[in-house]
Amino acid sequence: MDFHNLAYWQEKANNIAIETRLFINGEYSAAADNSVFATIDPAAQQTLAEVARGKKADVDRAVQAARGVFDRGDWSQASPAQRKAVLHKFADLMEAHREELALLETLDTGKPIRHSLRDDVPGAARAIRWYAEAIDKVYGEVAPTGGNELAMIVREPIGVIAAVVPWNFPLLLACWKLGPALASGNSVVLKPSEKSPLTALRLAGLAKQAGLPDGVFNVVSGFGHEAGQALAQHHDVEVLTFTGSTRTGKQLLKDAGDSNMKRVWLEAGGKSANIVFADCPDLQKAVNATAGGIFYNQGQVCIAGTRLLLEESIADRFLDLLKEQAKGWQPGNPLDPNTTMGMLIDNSHADSVHSFIRAGEAHSTLLLDGRKNPCPAAVGPTIFVDVDPASALSQEEIFGPVLVVTRFKTEEQALALANDSRYGLGAAVWTRDLSRAHRVSRRLKAGSVFVNNYNDGDMTVPFGGYKQSGNGRDKSLHALEKFTELKTIWIALES
């Protein structure tokens, strides 16, 4: 893959066209009251664009369009072959526009262009393509009722899906939801985060170009307490699927509860434990994976390995290696293809991360301090050691490149520490003992457990968490269950 150079991306950034309008019923348009908000480039510390600020009236219009096309059957009743062809073309267009989408993602979020180009855009297109291929491979059932009756069990599209996605992976996570929702025949109203709306708005134009009927895919940019709440409370939205913080997820549950008992699927916060036993088969590999697991995307990853649990006998050596490895993760210009670490999403979030670090200094040892950076939105690798498991550092989702380290002596102690969290999204186990790997994995309260690696992933595998990390699963065939109704059809047969 050609990542070009800094001058190339700066030139493209200076000339890129940015779509800022809502996309409703196949057309771009201003918000009903013409209001806008600024989206900020965190690296340049300047406004990228003034984006349409959708509110209840705009949500109503989008849902009405989505409902209308669903009831007409233009997409919901289209054959699997027709839907597959359109979604494949959609993925083709995303790949054809990969540099444009990657640049928008980097400018809007501050993540390195290398990661946007290598991971985000290909991953998003792959999600759409995977579900395009899944459409005609999911079958109904015939129940063994016996007698003169036949019971068929079928899956049908539900209707209007509201998808609310966060700012850390706006394009990728939108497509994790769009893929199964559209493949199943539903209509979608997507609300991207107000902090990173640009790729979603551009994506809508590509969807129309691919042949999605007007109204099937709508994008309403705006704020959570306005557009997000309106979607959650709307009586014509059957499903709300959300990725974001646990706090926001709980609020959406309340809002949805005041409406039509819509299904609410949440992929929320995390505080994942990365457990390294003394018999780790490859210490350097574990160090590399630990660094990537916490510093990638500036630590703004829900499944980031934010808690490192080290068996005492290897702790000092591991930390020496980790400090050296962290030198390769330093904030830089996101448009430079050599940059491995970009900016946090904005100055406000950087201030929040700084506040956690300041509070942690009072009761923990700061092994590595990443606060000294020229850009206000930058925070470098930060490592605390000998951290109290009950402290805010260990219990709260910081959502930044801040690693907290605790030592343990026994397997039971490691498990107790790992499970001592209200979250349960991910965990990792490093050991050469196969029995221990299996035993510990089964006892960890997490939706994904990685053995001798960290944060492997594939579209074939479900993603989601236990406890307050949410419910339901993204990715894999299991995600289709969120966007379909299960219907039983009884047929009486003549004897």
Offer a quick outline of the entry.
The active site is at residue 267. By secondary structure, the chain is an alpha/beta fold. 39% of the residues lie in helices and 20% in strands.
CA-CA gap between termini = 65 Å
Strand content: 15-25%
CATH topology of the largest domain: Aldehyde Dehydrogenase, Chain A, domain 1
**Sequence of strands across the biggest β-sheet:** 14-15-16-13-12-18-19
Overall pLDDT level: 98
CATH H-level superfamily of the largest domain: Aldehyde Dehydrogenase, Chain A, domain 1
Q: Helix segment count?
A: 15
What composes the largest sheet?
7 strands, mixed
The portion of residues assigned to helices is 25-40%
Q: Unreliable segments (pLDDT under 50, ≥5 consecutive)? A: none
Number of strands: 21
Q: What's the alpha carbon Rg, rounded to whole Å?
A: 23 Å
- CATH-defined architecture of the largest domain: 3-Layer(aba) Sandwich
Number of domains: 2
CATH class of the largest domain: Alpha Beta
Dominant shape: globular
Enzyme class: oxidoreductase
Organism: Klebsiella michiganensis
Family: Belongs to the aldehyde dehydrogenase family.
EC number: 1.2.1.5
Could you describe the 3D structure shown?
There is one protein chain. By secondary structure, the protein is an alpha/beta fold. The protein has two domains: 6-268 and 470-487, 3-Layer(aba) Sandwich (Aldehyde Dehydrogenase, Chain A, domain 1), CATH 3.40.605; 273-458, Aldehyde Dehydrogenase, Chain A, domain 2. The chain has helices spanning 6-15, 56-72, 80-96, 98-109, 113-134, 170-183, 198-210, 224-233, 246-257, 283-295, 312-326, 347-361, 392-395, 411-419, 434-443; strands spanning 22-24, 27-29, 36-41, 46-52, 141-143, 149-157, 160-164, 187-191, 217-219, 239-243, 263-267, 273-276, 307-311, 365-368, 382-385, 402-408, 423-424, 426-430, 448-451, 466-467, 484-492. The protein has a seven-stranded mixed beta sheet, with helices on both faces. Strands 9-8-7-10-11 form a five-stranded parallel beta sheet, sandwiched between helices. It has a three-stranded antiparallel beta sheet with strand order 5-6-21, with no helix packed on it.
